[in-house]
Design a protein that fits this description.
Shape: globular
CATH class: Alpha Beta
CATH topology: Rossmann fold
C-alpha cells in the first residue's frame, strides 16, 4: 500500500468546492496529503472541513480563474507562504452551450481562459517550482493531473469552446510531459465520461438526450464524482511512477463502444 501513500505531500487543487474536484481533494487527503484549495469564494469551507476531519491540513486561497491577472499572481502567493507543492490538480472548469453558429465571443473567451489558459499558467508556474524542488528521488519531484474530457477526443454538440479547450488540455498534457518527465515531473490527465454534476444539468434535464447517452454507456449508469477518487490517488503517487503523458479515460466504457 506504500505505492498509494501520499504522506508528506502537499497538493494544490482547483475546482475543489464541489463535484469531481471536491472528491479528488478528499481522496488525496485520505491518502495522506495536505491540500491547498483554490476557490473563487474563500468563505466556502465545506471541503476544507472535510479534509481537516481526516487529520490533514487544508488552506484556502481565493482567485478568479477567469482572470489572467488573478491566476498569474496565484502561484507566487502560495509559494511565498512556504507551501511545498508536489501535486497539482487542475479540475476547475466552466461550460457554455450555444449552437456553434450563434456562439458569442465573450463565452468563447471565458471558456478558453478558464479551461485552457489557466491550466497552462498553473502548470507553467507550479511546474517551474517542481523542476527545482529538493526531493529524495529526483525522478519524482512532482506530478500534475489535468482534467480533460470525452470531448478531448469527440466534438460534442453545442460546446465548441469546451471541446476546443479540452482538446487543448490533452495536447498540453502530452507536450509538458515530453519536456518534464526526464526531470522528475510527470504530467497526466483524466478524461471523465458523463458525470451527474451541476455542469451537466442541461443534459440531465433533456430526457431524450440523457436517455441516448445512458443507452451508450456499457456500465449502465452515469458516473458519480466519487468514481474519480482512485484514479487520482494512483496518478498522484508512486504507483504510477512510469506513467506520464497519458490521458486516462474514466467513462464506464463509453470510448470503447
Amino acid at each position: 500500500m506504500d505505492l498509494f501513500s501520499l504522506q508528506n505531500s502537499t497538493a494544490l487543487v482547483t475546482g475543489g468546492t464541489r463535484g469531481i474536484g471536491q472528491q479528488m481533494a478528499i481522496a488525496l487527503a485520505e491518502a495522506g496529503s495536505d491540500i491547498v484549495l483554490v476557490q473563487r469564494d474563500p468563505t466556502n469551507h465545506t471541503t476544507k472541513h472535510q479534509i481537516e476531519s481526516l487529520g490533514r491540513k487544508a488552506t484556502i486561497y481565493d482567485a478568479d480563474l477567469s482572470s489572467r491577472e488573478s491566476v498569474s499572481a496565484l502561484t507566487p502567493r502560495i509559494l511565498a507562504d512556504g507551501h511545498d507543492i508536489n501535486i497539482l490538480v487542475n479540475c476547475a472548469g466552466i461550460q457554455r452551450r450555444h449552437p456553434s453558429h450563434e456562439f458569442p465571443d465573450e463565452d468563447w473567451d471565458a471558456v478558453l481562459q478558464t479551461n485552457l489558459t489557466t491550466i497552462f499558467t498553473l502548470c507553467r508556474d507550479v511546474g517551474r517550482y517542481m523542476l527545482t524542488r529538493p526531493a529524495d528521488d529526483p525522478q519524482q519531484r512532482g506530478t500534475i493531473i489535468n482534467v480533460a474530457s470525452l470531448v478531448s477526443f469527440q466534438g460534442g454538440l453545442t460546446v465548441p469552446a469546451y471541446a476546443a479547450a479540452k482538446g487543448g488540455v490533452a495536447q498540453l498534457t502530452k507536450a509538458l510531459s515530453n519536456e518534464w518527465a526526464a526531470r522528475g515531473v510527470r504530467v497526466n490527465a483524466i478524461a471523465p465520461g458523463y458525470v451527474a454534476t451541476e455542469m451537466n444539468t442541461a443534459l440531465l434535464r433533456d430526457e431524450t438526450r440523457a436517455k441516448s447517452i445512458l443507452d451508450r454507456i456499457p456500465a449502465g449508469r452515469w458516473a458519480s464524482p466519487e468514481d474519480f477518487k482512485g484514479v487520482t490517488v494512483f496518478l498522484a503517487g508512486r504507483a504510477s511512477a512510469y506513467v506520464s503523458g497519458s490521458v486516462v479515460v474514466v467513462d464506464g466504457g463509453w470510448m470503447g463502444r
